[in-house]
Amino acid sequence: MKKILFFLTVWFLSVTPLFTEGRKEAAEYEVLRERMVRTQIMARNITDPGVLQAMKTIPRHLFMPEGVRHLAYGDHPVGIGEGQTISQPYVVALMTESLGLEGDERVLEIGTGSGYQASILAFIVEEVYSIEIKETLYKKSTETIGAVGITNVRTMFADGYFGWKEHAPYDAIMITAAVNHIPAPLLDQLKDGGKMILPLGNPYSFQTLVLVTKDGEDYSIEEICGVAFVPMTGKAIE
Fold first, then answer.
1. Cβ burial, residue 117 (10 Å; 0-12/13-18/19+)
2. What is the spatial distance between Cα 214 and Cα 189, in angstroms, rounded to a whole number?
């Protein structure tokens, strides 16, 4: 029932005036969103029903500055200010599907950015906790997440390197900025058997998207594909 109500809330908001958007414009974006899922995501073998429905439902363009909303459903990342980007739709879907979410998880996201990835996660799972180190983005993303009717995301303005210990342990953790090592505090806050996905490698060049699975005091790493994310700031680069 919760997911049905969530879907109806987001659908209603996506077809009624929101910010400066009217019905006709919202309908046009809905067509673009359907096409994005079909040609960029399903065509690249993303099959998880929850991920596909989330990508079809969440109005990606509303998480972007008005001046670049026309780029929202293109097959590429888009700048959102503060030197940050909203990730390519396929990468959002890939990272989300890789966590193997079933719906009852508590997930920690490091790097709220626009708030879009947190919202995709929130469509699928019970609780999302998201940390943003840039205050301007923290305020804007928190406002946007609330404005589109999402109620199961909590945000915090802080350095995500240290996680959010108060709500640990987490079933899954997603880092949406590049790091050259796995932050120890985040591993500590991951539940035994939990998964963490992150871009690991040179923060100023290219990285490998990896899936970390915790096994007691140890962990395993599965390499997924090459990526290029903006660097994680704060303690991660000291």
1. buried
2. 10
| 18: DSSP letter | B
Report the alpha-carbon distance of residue 6 to residue 229 in Å, rounded. 30
Q: What's phi and psi for 57, nearest 5 deg?
A: -95, -45
User: Can you give the pLDDT at residue 12?
Assistant: 45
Q: What is the largest CA-CA distance in the chain?
A: 54
Give 52-111 pLDDT, tens digit per residue: 999 999 999 999 999 999 999 999 999 999 999 999 999 999 999 999 999 999 999 999
DSSP 123-159: HHSSEEEEEESSHHHHHHHHHHHHHTT--SEEEEES-
Q: Which residue has the tokens 């009217």?
A: 22
Residues designated catalytic:
87
Tally Cβ neighbours within 10 Å of residue 216: 7
Alpha carbon separation from 6 to 119, 124, 221, 235 (Å, rounded): 11, 10, 34, 36
Structure tokens at 181: 């090592």
Q: What is the pLDDT averaged over residues 184-203?
A: 98
With beta carbons less than 8 A apart as the criterion, state whether 124 and 96 touch: yes
pLDDT at residue 19 is higher than 60: no
Contacts of 32 (CB under 8 A, 6+ apart): 72, 73
Contacts of 97 (CB under 8 A, 6+ apart): 46, 47, 48, 51
Could you tell me how far CA 22 lies from the centroid of its own chain?
26
